[in-house]
Amino acid sequence: MILGPWYTQTDQFVISGESIVRNLQYGIDIADTLGGHMNIGYVPDSFGQESSMPQIYRGFGIHDTMFWRGVSDEDSHYNEFIWQGEDGTKVNVYQIPFGYYIGGIINEQHLATLMKEEPFASLVKRSKTNHIMFPNGFDQAPPRKDLPNIIEKLNTLNPKFHFVVSSIQEYVDAVKKEQPKLNVLSGELTNGKNMRIHKSIYSSRSDLKKMNTQIQFYLTNVLEPVLTIGEHYGVKYPKEAIHHLWKLMFENAAHDSIGSCVSDTTNEDIYMRYKKVRDISTNLVEITLRQVAVQIKKPKQYDVTLTLFNTLPYKRSQIVQAIVYVPDLNFSLVNRNDRKIPFVIERAVDESEYILAQTIRLDPSKNFYVPTHVYKATISINVKDLPSMGYEQLYIKKDHKTNERLTKAVQNSIENEFFKLTVERDGSLTIYDKEVQRIYTKQAVLEENGDDGDSFNYSPPRNDLILYSTQQKHTVNISQSSLVSNITIKFDFKVPKTLAERQQKKLTTKMPVIMHIRLSKGSRIINFSIDIDNRSPLDHRLCVDFATGISSKVSFADLQFGTIQRPVYRTKEMALWKKSKENWNEKPITIDTCQSFAALSNDQQTVAVLPQGVREYEIIGDKYSIIRLTLFRSYGMMGKTDLLYRPGRASGEKVIATPAAELNKKLSFSFGLYIKETNFEQAKVTQIAKTFNSPIQPYEYADFLNGRLIFKLDDVEQQLADQGSILCTSGDLTLSVLKKAHHRSGYIARFYNGSVANQETVRLCFAKKPARVEVVDLLEHKLKALPLNDKSVMLSGIGHAKFISIYFEY
Question: What is an annotated GO biological process for this record, any one (predicted)?
Answer without folding.
Answer: mannose metabolic process
